[in-house]
Batch of 2 targets.
Target 1
Amino acid sequence: MAREFAMKDLGPLHHFLGISVTRSVSGLHLSQRQYILDILSRAGMHDCHPVTTPIDTNAKLPSSIGPPVPDPSLYRSLAGALQYATLTRPDIAYAVQQVCLHMHDPREPHLSLIKRILRY
């Protein structure tokens, strides 16, 4: 027995998978502002002070320096959320990639890098 599915027109696109869509004469504007604010709240950094760069390009981030993070699942969750944020923020892609290299054994300096990206 075959089923038939009907498509339904939901009108103009405004919000999809955490991305806000705004139309203008020049095209579409995609924004993840609310998504980023939710990540900041989850990390307890809603009122943090911003920084000018997402990563210190002169510093190396070894994998075994510093104590392990108390909650590795929070680290992984924040890193994954930042990966999704690179859809509309390609400027943080390198920094997020550096964070993701340490998902198997996150340390405090790695968590500090996540917090720096969030402050950016």
Target 2
Amino acid sequence: MAVVGIDHVQLAMPAGGEVAACGFYAGLLGIPEVPKPSHLQARGGCWFEAPPLRVHLGVDADFRPARKAHPGLLVDNFDALCAALAATGHAVTIDAEDPGHVYVDDPFGNRLELIAATV
């Protein structure tokens, strides 16, 4: 047996953050929101998926943002996305050693690494 891939990444968020999550993940990052399975909906949170990319946000009653641990997301139109994030007040930090990598926080303070997709 061997692990062969990642099905999804789950990040935590505080209760009631679904609207902010949708604005950021679907609105800015362009990952469509998909309905959670009915048996999980009562837990809150939301899912964003454009297979094979799947980012799930789950409510954590003792929420603390992930400041170091982070997903690395491949991005088309990297410069345009970085500009859109900055224009909406999201601090975009360029990796000094690799300008094709930037860091940005989601609305809850979770760190994301955005990586320019190469052709």
